[in-house]
Design a protein that fits this description.
Layout: E1 8-12, H1 17-28, E2 32-37, H2 40-52, E3 56-61, H3 67-81, E4 86-89, E5 95-97, H4 104-132, E6 136-141, H5 154-174, E7 179-186, E8 198-200, H6 207-217, H7 221-233, E9 238-241, H8 243-255, H9 257-268
Parallel strand pairs: 1-2, 1-4, 2-3, 4-6, 5-8, 6-7, 7-9
Length: about 270
């Protein structure tokens, strides 16, 4: 899939951050975009930005943690265009905090959006993509936290490890049927994820410090968008971003889980 002109691309969580960056990148490549987000004004602003640059996009208001809403979204996309060439399951929320301060509702919300939201996207779109035929690509947004777990991030890591595992299983199942699946695993990216995250315990008191750290040290979401496009063009099962720093800690984890845990615990004690 070298040429995106006229390709139908679906992006969830497209109102900000990685989703917005990917939408703009694919819009520049002349893909026809279907953009979904729970924030109506945000996704509409991205649609206007893309069309202002000469691209083509439709905005959809979708809560990706609602399977009926995702099913209706898929139905609308296929009714309009009859196929999907690229599906980027990207919608997600952040979470951090002491486990004893993390509520059942927190667990349900994080798993519901980050993991089940991807599953609902797969359930709604993949049968239709298979029926339409032709090669296609799926990119699921996971995280470095889905490769190497960190303290005070149990629900988030659980959800993102699940996305990586789901992506691996799906690629094994679907690649011979014309659909390749990639888990893109960003590290620290300069997006609004911390400012809107569910934070509990002492982490909540450090929200502004962490937001500032992400702003200063985070990689641009444009780098993730470039990685998404690269993974579509040259499929990779797991795509770390930025490749150097994320791959290093992931490799350490594969070589020595205990050593990787020691490093992550030490880093987590550093204050931004």
């Amino acid at each position: 899939m070298e040429d995106f002109a006229g390709r139908i691309a679906v992006i969830t969580g497209a109102g900000s951050g990685i989703g917005r960056a990917t939408a703009i990148r694919l819009g520049r490549e002349r893909a026809k975009l279907h953009l979904a987000d729970i924030d109506a004004s945000a996704v509409e602003a991205v649609r206007e930005e893309i069309e202002g640059r000469g691209g083509t996009a439709t905005a959809h208001v979708v809560d990706c943690s609602d399977p009926a809403a995702v099913e209706a979204f898929a139905e609308a996309v296929f009714a309009q265009d009859g196929r999907v060439d690229v599906l980027h399951n990207n919608a997600g929320i952040g979470h951090g905090g002491d486990v004893e301060r993390t509520t059942v509702e927190d667990w349900q919300r994080v798993i519901g959006v980050n993991l089940l939201g991807v599953a609902y996207g797969i359930a709604a779109f993949v049968p239709r993509m298979l029926a339409a035929g032709g090669p296609a690509a799926i990119v699921n947004t996971a995280s470095l936290a889905g490769l190497v777990a960190a303290p005070q991030m149990a629900p988030y890591s659980a959800s993102k490890f699940g996305v990586v595992g789901m992506s691996e299983a799906l690629d094994s199942e679907l690649r011979d049927r014309g659909i390749r699946v990639t888990a893109v695993c960003p590290g620290i990216i300069d997006t609004p994820i911390v400012s809107t995250a569910l934070l509990r315990g002492e982490v909540e008191g450090r929200r502004e410090e962490i937001v500032e750290m992400y702003r200063k040290r985070g990689t641009s979401p444009d780098a993730v968008a470039d990685a998404v496009v690269a993974a579509i063009r040259r499929p990779r099962l797991v795509q770390p971003v930025p490749a150097g720093s994320v791959r290093a800690i992931w490799l350490l984890k594969r070589l020595s889980p205990r050593a990787a845990q020691f490093v992550v615990r030490a880093l987590s004690k550093l204050r931004p």
